[in-house]
Each structure stands twice: as C-alpha cells, then as structure tokens.
Amino acid sequence: MFEISSEAYFSAAHHLRNYNGPCENVHGHNWLVRATVRCDTLNAAGIGIDFKDLKKSLKQVIEKLDHSDLNAVFGENGCNPSSENIARHIYTELGNILNNSSCTVSRIDVYETAGNCASYFE
Description:
Number of helices: 3
Largest sheet: 5 strands, mixed
CATH class: Alpha Beta
Oligomer: single chain
C-alpha cells in the first residue's frame, strides 16, 4: 500500500455558532489542507497517482472555499464550518473526483493555524 500526499492553501472567513468565546465572531484563516491518497498499485512508471493530478483535483475542491464566507457555504446544510467539518467536506468532494478501483482518498488534514489541525478519515 502506498500513500501520496499533496498540500494546498486557501483563505476564508468563518464564525462558529454555539461556541462560547471569541471564535463566535467573524474571523479568517489562511488554511493549509493536506490530502492523502492511498494506492494499492503503481502504474508502469512506478506512480500511484501523479502529484500534479492530485494537486489539480485538490485545487478544484478548495477553490470553491477560497475567499468565501464559510458560514454561507456550509450554512445550506446547517453545518457549522469548523475545521473538522471542513476536513470532512474536502474528503467527500475530493473522493468524488479521485476515488477509483486502485486509488482512494484516505485522509484530509486541515490546519487553521500552524499548530492546530483537524483530520478526517474513514
């Protein structure tokens, strides 16, 4: 089994509902997203998934979040835009693009600051 990871950034604002503290106020982050894909086979070149394909697909998912109000994006389904929920959202959306018989999204890590990360995996 092989794991391949790529990182991308996006900037967005949010506020956390049902949170007792300053994060209830609108604020923004420069989010770092690390996407990890698991591949059980390699192609003839010895590659599970090309980094450029993973990066392109990840960018496609996060560009919908970039420079947005995440409460507006996630509010449609009643979901609070916490780092945990953002990670799950990216996991699902990236999986819709990439998952196939030999490659699947295995983990998404979302850093809202350099030292704080939430991850989603199944």
